[in-house]
Design a protein that fits this description.
The protein is 37% helix and 17% strand. The chain has helices spanning 17-27, 44-53, 64-73, 110-119, 133-140, 150-158, 197-209, 215-218, 220-223, 242-256, and strands at 13-14, 35-38, 57-60, 81-82, 100-104, 126-132, 159-167, 172-173, 180-187. It is α/β, with parallel strands linked by helices.
Length: 257
C-alpha cells in the first residue's frame, strides 16, 4: 500500500510505489559494483535499491531531517549515508573506481547534477534519474529542436540518452505544477573526443549563450584574426550536431596554433 509522506521543506516527494519500482527495475542493469542514490528524501527508492544492491548502495542527502528519517527506517544505511551536498562531494572519499547514479533528483539542481556527471564522465558510466519533463526533453533533443542546447550537445557527446517514461504530478506529494520524466544515460564508446575537449566545452557553451546569432558572430572572440571558410559558421548552434561541434573545435584549435 502506498503511504503519502508529509510535506517537508517545500519538496515534492515521490509516493507512488509502482513508479519507484519501475525506476529501480531500470537501474538494476547498472554496470558498476558501487551505486549512489542522490537525494533519497523519505526513501521510497531506497527501500527497493537496498533489496537489490544491499551494501553496494550509498545515499547522499543534504537535508538533516530526511537523514534522520532514513536512518530510523533503514538502519542498514548507517555506514552508507552521506550527509552533504552532492554538488560539492568528494567522490574519491567513498568510491574506488566507477559507480552509477540513481535518484529522484531535486529539480532545482538537476542541470547541475548533469554538469557534475560530465565532469566525472569517465567515472560514472550509468545514470537513471527522475527530472522535470522539460529537462528530459532538453537533454534528449536532436539538432533543430527548440529545446536543443548546451546540455543536449555535451551529454550526447559522451552518453546515449533515453527517456524511459513520463510521470504525472499525482505521483508526488505535494503534486508539482510540472510533469516529470525518468531518463537513462549510458556512457558511449567515446573515451576522448577527437578535438581539444576543454575548447569543445567552451565553444558549445558560448555558441548557445547567443543562440540567435550565427556562429561566426557568437564565436567572434575565437575567430579573431582567423580565416576559416566553413559554411557551418554561418549557421545557428541548434542546426549543428555533436560531430559538427567537434569539427569546428578542431578547426579553431588548429588555426590558432
Amino acid at each position: 500500500m502506498s503511504v503519502r509522506p508529509k510535506k517537508n521543506l517545500g519538496q515534492h516527494f515521490l509516493w507512488d510505489q509502482n513508479i519507484a519500482q519501475k525506476i529501480v527495475e531500470a537501474f538494476k542493469q547498472a554496470p558498476t559494483s558501487q551505486v549512489l542514490e542522490v537525494g533519497p528524501g523519505k526513501g521510497i527508492l531506497t527501500r527497493y535499491l537496498l533489496e537489490h544492491f544491499g551494501n553496494r548502495l550509498y545515499a547522499v542527502e543534504l537535508d538533516r531531517e530526511s537523514g534522520r528519517y532514513l536512518l530510523e527506517h533503514y538502519p542498514r544505511l548507517k555506514e552508507y549515508l552521506i550527509e552533504r551536498d552532492f554538488l560539492s562531494m568528494d567522490f574519491s572519499r567513498y568510491f574506488t573506481g566507477s559507480f552509477s547514479l540513481v535518484g529522484n533528483f531535486p529539480y532545482n539542481i538537476s542541470s547541475q547534477i548533469f554538469f557534475r556527471l560530465l565532469e566525472y564522465r569517465n567515472t560514472i558510466p550509468f545514470l537513471v534519474g527522475m527530472v522535470q519533463k522539460e529537462v528530459a526533453l532538453r537533454i534528449a533533443s536532436p539538432p533543430g529542436s527548440k529545446s536543443y542546447g548546451i546540455l543536449s550537445v555535451l551529454l550526447q557527446a559522451y552518453y546515449d540518452v533515453n527517456i524511459l517514461f513520463h510521470v504525472g504530478p499525482g505521483s508526488f506529494q505535494p503534486p508539482p505544477k510540472v510533469n516529470s520524466s525518468v531518463v537513462e544515460l549510458r556512457r558511449n564508446s567515446v573515451q576522448h573526443l577527437p578535438c581539444n575537449e576543454k575548447l569543445f566545452f567552451r565553444v558549445v557553451k558560448q555558441s548557445f549563450n547567443q543562440r540567435r546569432k550565427m556562429l561566426r558572430n557568437s564565436l567572434k572572440s575565437f575567430l579573431l584574426n582567423l580565416n576559416i571558410d566553413d559554411e557551418r559558421f554561418d549557421k545557428r548552434p541548434e542546426q549543428l550536431d555533436v560531430d559538427d561541434f567537434v569539427d569546428i573545435t578542431s578547426q579553431l584549435f588548429t588555426a590558432s596554433e
